[in-house]
Amino acid sequence: MTDGSLLVLATQYSFAASFAAMAAGTLYFLMERANLTPDYSPVASLAAMVSFVAAINYYAMKDMVGMTGMASDLASFPTDFRYVDWLITTPLLLAMLPVLLGGKRFDTGLMARLMAADIGMIAIGYVGEVSINASGGGTMLSWWCLLGSMVLWFYILYELFAGIGRASAGADDGLVQALGLLRSFIVIGWLVYPLGYIVAALDLSDSLLVARELIYCVADVINKVGFGMVAVAAAKRMSARQWQAGQIA
Ligand code: RET
After folding, report:
1. CA 175/CA 71 separation, integer angstroms
2. N or C: which end of the chain has fewer CB within 10 A?
3. Which CATH class is domain 6-244?
């Protein structure tokens, strides 16, 4: 890995840019709360919590990776920070879906199953990632963890298709559409993370490991701020309906 290369510099800078994006997202979600009814304002609160936690983590990470152009600074940055961030933020992201369903459609069991499976997915992945880092590549343990983590992710997707599908039958068209879009963040946007794990386990090249960090930064902003924006837009639509229906003064 060449020091001062564009890839190293862009990756280092992407941490600072992600911090700014997460901070801006937090501000946006907090301001949007004012445009939501009490039934739907928790969607914006959850989005703000997610981006605020990420902003704090990125603030710390950007200082660890520096802006020096030195590849060694990136190599010494602890991936543990990402896992702590995911452990806190991914259950909150998933919680937005049942909350968006709102009112009588809200299903506590569905929310609990989604959050439990998600925490398990990240925790098992962490055990595997630690083992990869300790040995500089994939280990037997890390491949088993990949499998366990993937099974939980598929379970989450199953719940999202079956559970949300069931609960949203007959709901507002725009809401159903938004839920479908949010689900595709979790299918496509989240795919980046197991792929990044596999890149580390295969230990193909140092450049790929640096690129992995850059891609994680971009994916995190899309999956947190982008996801939150779609969720808040749907919450605004549902709030407008409630106001129109005169359910809220
Ligand atoms: C791990 C381990 C390998 C298998 C799988 C994983 C999934 C990680 C995911 C992370 C999502 C992070 C998000 C961050 C948002 O900013 C733990 C890498 C399946 C899905 C959405």
Report:
1. 45
2. C
3. mainly alpha
Q: In the chain, what are the domain boundaries? A: 6-244
Ligand 1 pocket mutation pick from 122, 198, 215, 220 by most atoms within 8 angstroms of CB: 122
Q: Is the CB of 190 under 6 A from ligand 1?
A: yes
Q: One digit per residue, pLDDT tens: the chain, 249 residues? A: 677 799 999 999 999 999 999 999 999 999 999 999 999 999 999 999 999 999 999 999 999 998 888 888 887 778 899 999 999 999 999 999 999 987 667 788 889 999 999 999 999 999 999 999 999 899 999 999 999 999 999 999 999 999 888 878 888 888 999 999 999 999 999 999 999 999 999 999 889 999 999 999 999 999 999 999 999 999 999 999 989 988 665
| Closest residue to atom 11 of ligand 1, CA basis | 190
132 CA distance to ligand 1 middle (Å): 16
Q: Write down the pTM of the prediction.
A: 0.94
**CA-CA distance, 152 to 156, in Å (whole number)?**
6
Q: 215, 200 in Cβ contact below 8 A? A: no
CA of 131 relative to ligand 1 center, distance in Å: 16
